[in-house]
Write a sequence for this structure.
């Protein structure tokens, strides 16, 4: 360890206690990646603060030393947002895992960032409330990480994303100051820095407390499973449901290959031979759900459903969801390796983009299983390959990128919920102009002028804060200095 | 310090808007963006104004993708026009705002009325934005899909920024289906039954009956009756069943003479202030911008004379709080009013923890300042559970009072302003007051 880092490690031990600073090379290695395992990088130092003031002191120490730092929650992110830097400090928030307060009348909870997503809903359940954002990793993922990524989930179609459910954030700014964003109510005045911070992928500061909204548990939840011969028939049902003015809590679809994988993994017993399975969940007041259920069922039938199953108790609903929830992991049963893609298209373009994916898959000779949040056009194509076959990883990566291009051609997005991180920063210029990216980074410059807070994420090229926009000549200084690369 | 505008320019497209702001930057002009003027008096007046950019020539619905429940709209389009276009497909932009207000103005001011309870504010429905920076550069963020986490969300930053960071030229929104049925429930409570009114608000807001709005109206003066209003939207049969259940809830804590049910809003619904004209014109926030409203009182109202006109209707103080502190907030408003010898009228979406305290035009600057300062003291805390902001009133023009007060994050807000508008030329003085 270099001298300056040794000094920094000693400083961290003073702040957090020796037991909460990791310097052992073997132990450091366990932090080398998050949920995106294709990118790995062993951090110089790992620190686990136990309080907000400790976090602030840790950040201040980094800022004083000019050392970059990266915050990490549970490490479940799928875009490498918490990928460490070899020259930097990884600040792990998992020791801060207290639910500080639940106020059932205000429908608010105050939690620390390391609290897992599902535990908020569990703590709120006795009051008839829950925390709505439900990313599929909700058993382990942290609320702090959810804030960084603006996480969604299967039910965000109706209930919204993390940004719609956070009303206050205590943060440590990149210079090490503690401050609150938002007045805790969701009605704060002035600039909506709370909204801008949420989803900034850890580049604007570190969250140390979160005020979240809690929502009344729905009176009734009904889940329908409809089997179709093809995804295009299923897609028709989705369009018809939306056109009828119904807003389900969730609409999910799986194609034949992902059904096959789920069947192999969890024996979910979906209708045999189905080319697509549609899961529609309705929640809300009983009287509304009953009226909508009849309508949705008839629309599903009219679109050509070969079989419809319905469930209204938690156990039966869990059976329907089992296959969907297992889908990502299940493809491991039918393929040695796979890439989870995360693209978005307008809902009405689902059919077109699925056809395009099928033809890309055929051309490349690489299988793609499709699992998607059909209601909001968020696709999770799973690109299946064998990493032991020479050339296949590269071909899979290329196919995965071509799928994103197809999404953009339809007016979509390169990420619906997994974030940009390190994985997709090179695609950002395909979606945004240089001016757009420059403008976004004005926000970054306001929060982190020294560019020490999770640098190298989201943006392909850093903006040097303070430079005059639009007057740049020749190579970007950061590129010339070898700090950045243009894709 | 005001009424100094030298020119009004009205761009017809984004390129013109960009050229305009680039020229203004070159000449160092202070720029005040405006829409229909319905919200211009909401906030401190500009400390300088060389050029007013009137967005009303950019008034088109650019795209309505009904199957995707998404619409892209130019900033100068009126809410009433947008509503009429969307209604053809049975859809809506679920924000309560005067029909004459422009989309850009509604976004810039963060205007949302009673249905904020269910649908949120403009920032919650905005999925993409195009704006021209102070230096004339055109920038986008978001897109035209609802689910999208690529890049920073500048829409969040610009919504509610009151024209002080950039000129909003286009906005893309998530839409909602128009509900087949709606019911407005109103319960009235005598002054002595204030606790029951508070209980009715919190019960409605916490219920699983999914109200679209939970309002409280308390005109303050004699006889001081409190009204609790709830809007239910949904299917015919669903609304009928929920109305019965909600009526029971509203009366559960006693005190109410009964719950009235109607299919149109009560006269006080979303009105600011509760008595007298709205600072921004009639209509208030409760008038859903329905197609029928077009050309009505809100739609064709002549815009205010200029960017710097001061409000005629007293002072509006915006009080936000955790809902469990509703009784405390009402007590505080009453006590602080008494201390300052004022009798505030209170109204707003109490179910989301927001109320507007309206002080009459005769309330003096010192009394208003005392009211606000004492109220801030009573509602302060950590973690923050509310804030007190002066929204409109002569006291802002006089410059004697910090409109924002101790809203969290003001130092970072100033840093953001410095980055986006280093010359402090975009609506100078609007958010932070002073120069």
């Amino acid at each position: 360890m270099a001298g300056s880092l040794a000094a920094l490690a000693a400083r961290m031990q003073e702040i957090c206690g020796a037991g909460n600073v990791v310097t052992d090379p073997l132990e450091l290695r366990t932090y080398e990646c998050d949920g995106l395992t294709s990118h790995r990088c062993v951090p110089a130092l790992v620190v686990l603060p136990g309080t907000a003031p400790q976090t602030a002191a840790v950040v201040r120490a980094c800022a004083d030393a000019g050392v970059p730092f990266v915050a990490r929650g549970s490490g479940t992110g799928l875009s490498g947002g918490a990928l460490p830097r070899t020259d930097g400090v990884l600040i792990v928030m998992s020791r801060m895992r207290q639910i500080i307060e639940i106020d059932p009348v205000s429908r608010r909870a105050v939690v620390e960032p390391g609290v897992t997503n599902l535990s908020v809903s569990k703590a709120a359940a006795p009051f008839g409330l829950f925390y709505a954002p439900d990313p599929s990793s909700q058993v382990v993922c942290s609320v702090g990480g959810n804030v960084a990524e603006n996480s969604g989930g299967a039910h965000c179609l109706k209930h919204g994303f993390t940004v719609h459910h956070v009303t206050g954030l205590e943060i440590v700014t990149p210079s090490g100051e503690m401050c609150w964003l938002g007045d805790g109510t969701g009605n704060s005045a002035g600039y909506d820095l709370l909204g801008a911070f949420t989803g900034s992928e850890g580049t604007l500061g570190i969250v140390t407390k979160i005020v979240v909204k809690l929502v009344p548990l729905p009176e009734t939840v009904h889940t329908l499973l409809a089997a179709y011969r093809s995804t295009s028939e299923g897609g028709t049902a989705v369009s018809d449901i939306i056109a009828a003015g119904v807003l389900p809590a969730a609409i999910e679809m799986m194609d034949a290959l992902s059904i096959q994988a789920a069947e192999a993994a969890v024996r979910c017993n979906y209708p045999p031979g189905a080319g697509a399975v549609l899961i529609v969940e309705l929640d809300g007041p009983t009287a509304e759900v009953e009226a909508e259920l009849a309508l949705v069922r008839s629309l599903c039938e009219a679109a050509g459903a070969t079989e419809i199953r319905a469930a209204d108790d938690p156990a039966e609903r869990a059976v329907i969801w089992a296959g969907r929830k297992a889908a990502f992991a299940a493809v491991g049963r039918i393929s040695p390796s796979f890439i989870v893609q995360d693209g978005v298209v307008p809902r009405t373009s689902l059919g077109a983009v699925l056809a395009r994916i099928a033809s890309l898959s055929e051309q490349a000779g690489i299988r793609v299983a499709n699992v998607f949040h059909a209601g909001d056009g968020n696709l999770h194509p799973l690109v299946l390959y064998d990493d032991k076959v020479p050339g296949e990883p590269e071909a899979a990566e290329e196919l995965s990128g071509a799928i994103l291009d197809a999404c953009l051609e339809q007016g979509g997005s390169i990420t619906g919920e997994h974030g940009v991180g390190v994985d997709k920063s090179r695609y950002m210029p395909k979606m945004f102009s240089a001016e757009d990216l420059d403008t976004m980074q004005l926000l970054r410059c306001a929060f982190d002028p020294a560019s020490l807070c999770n640098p190298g994420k989201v943006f392909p090229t850093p903006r040097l804060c303070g430079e005059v926009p639009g007057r740049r000549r020749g190579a970007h200084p950061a590129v010339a200095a070898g700090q950045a690369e243009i894709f | 310090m005001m009424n100094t505008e030298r020119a009004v320019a009205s761009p017809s497209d984004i390129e013109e808007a960009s050229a305009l702001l680039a020229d203004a930057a070159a000449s160092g002009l202070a720029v005040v963006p405006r829409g229909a003027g319905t919200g211009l008096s909401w906030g401190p007046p500009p400390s300088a104004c060389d050029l007013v950019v009137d967005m009303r020539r950019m008034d088109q619905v650019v795209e309505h993708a009904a199957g995707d429940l998404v619409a892209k709209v130019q900033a100068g389009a009126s809410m009433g026009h947008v509503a009429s276009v969307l209604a053809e497909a049975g859809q809506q932009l679920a924000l309560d705002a005067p029909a004459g207000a422009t989309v850009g103005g509604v976004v810039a001011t963060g205007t949302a009325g009673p249905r904020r309870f269910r649908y949120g504010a403009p920032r919650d429905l905005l999925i993409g934005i195009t704006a021209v920076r102070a230096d004339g550069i055109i920038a986008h963020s978001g897109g035209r899909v609802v689910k999208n986490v690529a890049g920073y969300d500048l829409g969040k930053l610009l919504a509610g920024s009151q024209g002080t960071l950039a000129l909003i030229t286009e906005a893309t929104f998530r839409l909602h289906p128009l509900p087949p049925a709606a019911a407005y429930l109103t319960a009235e409570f005598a002054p002595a039954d204030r606790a029951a009114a508070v209980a009715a608000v919190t019960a409605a807001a916490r219920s699983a009956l999914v109200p679209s709005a939970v309002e409280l109206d308390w005109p303050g003066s004699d006889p001081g009756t409190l009204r609790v209003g709830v809007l239910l939207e949904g299917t015919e049969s669903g609304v009928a069943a929920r109305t019965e259940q909600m009526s029971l809830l509203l009366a559960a804590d006693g005190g109410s003479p009964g719950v009235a049910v109607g299919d149109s809003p009560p006269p006080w619904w979303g009105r600011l202030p509760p008595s007298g004209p709205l600072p921004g014109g009639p209509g208030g926030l409760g008038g859903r911008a329905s197609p029928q409203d077009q050309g009505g009182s809100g739609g064709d109202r002549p815009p205010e004379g200029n960017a710097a006109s001061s409000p005629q209707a007293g002072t509006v103080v915006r009080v936000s709080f955790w809902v469990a502190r509703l009784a405390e907030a009402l007590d505080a408003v009453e006590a602080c009013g008494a201390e300052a010898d004022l009798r505030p009228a209170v109204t707003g979406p109490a179910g989301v923890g927001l109320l507007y305290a309206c002080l009459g035009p005769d309330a003096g600057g010192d009394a208003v300042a005392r009211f606000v300062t004492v109220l801030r003291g009573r509602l302060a805390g950590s973690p923050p559970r509310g804030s007190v902001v002066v929204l409109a009133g002569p006291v802002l023009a006089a410059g004697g009072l910090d409109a924002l007060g101790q809203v969290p994050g003001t130092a970072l807000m100033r840093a953001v302003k410095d980055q986006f508008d280093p010359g402090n030329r975009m609506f100078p003085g609007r958010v932070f007051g002073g120069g």
